[in-house]
């Protein structure tokens, strides 16, 4: 499976906004988007002057979503074609499918500091869904699914340390967290308002439908 091995902050600089790829570091002064001298697009010349074309505007929206959830191009297009086949607004359905990814759910439960760390936690076998170990980050969760931590001292300790490191963290309404176990249940599907990145999903649909 392919994966991006370059500098993560390059993505945030290119999109001109925080994508929270590195978790808590993105909220500190070390964030390169916050540092004035690095608040430019990557490369020698930084941002190009001139007005962006209609194509460029739609491309940036698509790249923003893809990088926010940590996907490669083929993975993203699979989600788009799947959203096209489902009923309802394609853009909102696409974002809902991405929100339901297991790595995103684990991150939003504060079991891991970032989506990348959540994928590692899942790949190493620390997360179970409905009592069964799932080691695939793009597993699609459904209403009623119970996400728990593997029944081992090492797994529980790792997740509890993360929960204790951010005690003021609050979960979204579609997730019901039990800090004691620790574990959680999906009580509803994520709504459009649960997507925390600013994006115009219709532009993403227009770009991918070319």
Give me the secondary-structure topology.
Layout: H1 9-15, H2 54-68, H3 73-85, H4 90-99, H5 102-108, H6 115-123, E1 127-129, E2 132-133, E3 146-149, H7 153-165, E4 175-178, E5 183-186, H8 201-208
Antiparallel strand pairs: 1-2, 1-3, 3-5, 4-5
Helix pairs in contact: 2-8, 3-4, 4-8, 5-6
Description:
The chain is an alpha+beta fold and 210 residues long. The protein is built from 8 helices and 5 strands; from the N terminus they run ααααααβββαββα. It has helices spanning 9-15, 54-68, 73-85, 90-99, 102-108, 115-123, 153-165, 201-208, and strands at 127-129, 132-133, 146-149, 175-178, 183-186.
Which fold does the CATH topology of the domain at 101-188 refer to?
Structural Genomics Hypothetical 15.5 Kd Protein In mrcA-pckA Intergenic Region, Chain A
Indicate the proportion of strand residues. Answer: 5-15%
Number of helices, where a helix is a run of at least 4 consecutive DSSP H or I residues: 8
Q: Please name the fourth-level CATH homologous superfamily of the domain at 101-188.
A: RNA-binding S4 domain
Helix content: 25-40%
What is the ordering of alpha helices and beta strands?
HHHHHHEEEHEEH
Ends apart, CA distance between termini:
27 Å
Shape: globular
Architecture of the domain at 101-188 in CATH? Answer: Roll
């Amino acid at each position: 499976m392919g994966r991006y091995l370059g500098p993560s902050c390059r993505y945030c600089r290119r999109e001109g906004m925080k994508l929270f790829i590195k978790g808590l570091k993105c909220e500190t002064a070390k964030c390169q988007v916050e540092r004035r001298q690095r608040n430019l697009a990557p490369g020698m010349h930084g941002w190009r002057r001139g007005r962006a074309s209609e194509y460029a505007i739609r491309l940036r929206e698509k790249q923003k979503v893809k990088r926010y959830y940590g996907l490669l191009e083929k993975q993203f297009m699979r989600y788009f074609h799947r959203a096209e086949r489902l009923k309802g607004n394609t853009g909102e359905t696409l974002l809902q499918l991405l929100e339901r990814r297991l790595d995103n759910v684990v991150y939003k439960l504060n079991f891991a500091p970032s989506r990348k760390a959540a994928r590692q936690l899942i790949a190493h076998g620390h997360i179970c869904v409905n009592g069964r170990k799932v080691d695939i980050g793009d597993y699609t969760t459904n209403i009623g699914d119970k996400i728990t931590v593997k029944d081992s001292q090492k797994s529980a300790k790792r997740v509890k340390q993360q929960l204790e490191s951010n005690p003021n963290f609050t979960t979204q309404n579609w997730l019901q967290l039990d800090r004691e176990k620790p574990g959680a249940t999906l009580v509803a599907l994520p709504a459009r308002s649960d997507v925390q990145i600013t994006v115009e999903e219709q532009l993403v649909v227009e770009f991918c439908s070319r």
